[in-house]
Amino acid sequence: MQSTDTIALPSTKRRGRRRATATARQQRLAAFLFLAPACVMVGIYVIWPIVSSIGLSFYNWDGMAEKTFVGIGNYVELFQAPTFYTALKNNVLWLVLFLLAPPMGLAVALYLNQAVAGIRVVKSLFFAPFVLSGVVVGLMFSWFYDPTFGLLKLILGHGVPVLGDPRYVTFGIIFAALWPQTAYCMILYLTGLTSLNAEQIEAARMEGASGWTMLWHVILPQLRPTTFMAIVVTIIGALRSFDLIAVMSGGGPFESSTVLAYYMYDQAIKYYRIGYSAAIAVVLFAIMMVYIVYHLRRMLRTES
């Protein structure tokens, strides 16, 4: 009897292992089936356009005739074009000033994260810019800056041609873009504030922490993932800025407000230089990747 039990026990273990292996295989198959549609969509609409744009940047093509291989000729021309450096300088300006959106969004979120009467109405007012399209925001601020009848003229007492002066146009457009971007960062921080650890906050209060000390040492460390997301989204928004420029200035006056995204559109749509436009897109993509990888590595290092 003892001998039979001894022989049956390894067989039972083998059956259990086979059952566990089959279950794990089914789970992997189910996970693959769930992920497959998303992977196919990413491959078609993200990976393939990136690869095709990189390949297209080595050709001279107007979108209709035969492609002509020019090697790095498009990049050589691009790095010799004065408009490219104007657009790059404006992108850097957008990037620096646009990074004001996360701290402003945090300040508004802290103000709105209160249990007082009527705060929901105030939240909806601050949330409104986020749901407006870029075209609507551009038109509103174009009217605001208008030197003949705009609200800015009424405030200052005299008209200032913000969108017609190369010295002011980029700052005016960035100021307009900060309005909806701050609202977006505010939404991210409001979501993050709802998931704070109440026990840590209560313990900090018992230790006498309040105000700036509470914010810096207790709240902001818990909001680090939200801050990372706000910064990354803001950087991407600054580098791909297009709609407000197209509506408010068209890259002018004298291409003084153009950025890389609008320069790329201008070359492709107006001048039918698809290969040259693809080269601009590749350079813009490379700049985005540098910033995103840097911040991602920094966040992962901090988390570990």
From TrEMBL:
List the membrane topology term(s).
Multi-pass membrane protein
A Gene Ontology term for the protein's cellular component: plasma membrane
Give the lineage. Bacteria, Pseudomonadati, Pseudomonadota, Betaproteobacteria, Burkholderiales
Principal place of residence: membrane
Q: Give the originating organism.
A: Caballeronia humi
Spell out where the chain crosses the membrane. Answer: 29-51, 92-112, 124-145, 168-190, 228-254, 274-294
What name has this protein been given in UniProt?
Binding-protein-dependent transport systems inner membrane component
Ordered alphabetically, the record's keywords are: Cell membrane, Membrane, Transmembrane, Transmembrane helix, Transport
Localization recorded for this chain is: Cell membrane
Output one GO BP term: transmembrane transport
> Domain named ABC transmembrane type-1: which ranges?
87-295
Q: Which family does it belong to?
A: Belongs to the binding-protein-dependent transport system permease family.
Does this UniProt record's set of keywords contain Membrane?
A: yes
Q: Which InterPro entries match?
A: ABC_transporter_permease, MetI-like, MetI-like_sf
Task: Read off the Pfam families from this record.
Answer: BPD_transp_1
Which region ranges are annotated with the description Disordered?
1-20
